[in-house]
Amino acid sequence: MMVAASAACSRTAADQPAGAASVAATNSPVATLDLAYDKPAVVGSNVNATANGLPIGKTVDLEWGTVTGGWVVEDYYHFRGKKYSETTTSLGRVPVDASGRMSARFVVPEDYGGVHEVIGRIDGKLVAQSAINVTQTFALTPPSGPVGTPIELKVTGLGWRTMESTWVVNWDNQELGFVSAAGTRGSAVPGFARPVPRAITS
Fold first, then answer.
1. Do 67 and 163 lie in a common domain?
2. In the β-sheet with 191-193, what is the strand arrangement from edge to edge?
């Protein structure tokens, strides 16, 4: 049986920013962005986003809050840890109807796990916001096979923070190695060969 457990690592300064992008304060009222999706939310989940009370006839720029960065290595061998900065990516542009309602559908992007802000802007100004917590997934291929069968472990949604970015991989309570996606937006595909079973003695 293969299980994954988080590895304990020291905390660095890179852990300080929140995973989602910061939103500037505004004097205008900010609408609640209602997000409907099957829980837990994982990479590839369908999300329905709605908001009311928006300016009629305008277009909302829907954005996904995230971070960009990864391992910092200088001169090929000086390891400096990890560094990230907050940013946003576009989820699309959505028109506001005659009742002041916006309705959109998007897919959770392939990205780091943890909390991500989903924000709506009109003419660059914040008008609606909410957040979604992306959970990790682990998938083994193939599901069965004889000793020596190559096994592919695909993971998505690993976090970017130190305590969430590296997971230990165990087989029958023996360590096989670890998987990390600190520089690959939370996704990784390490490969393993199924080990010879341990001898069981009485």
1. no
2. 137-141, 150-156, 191-193
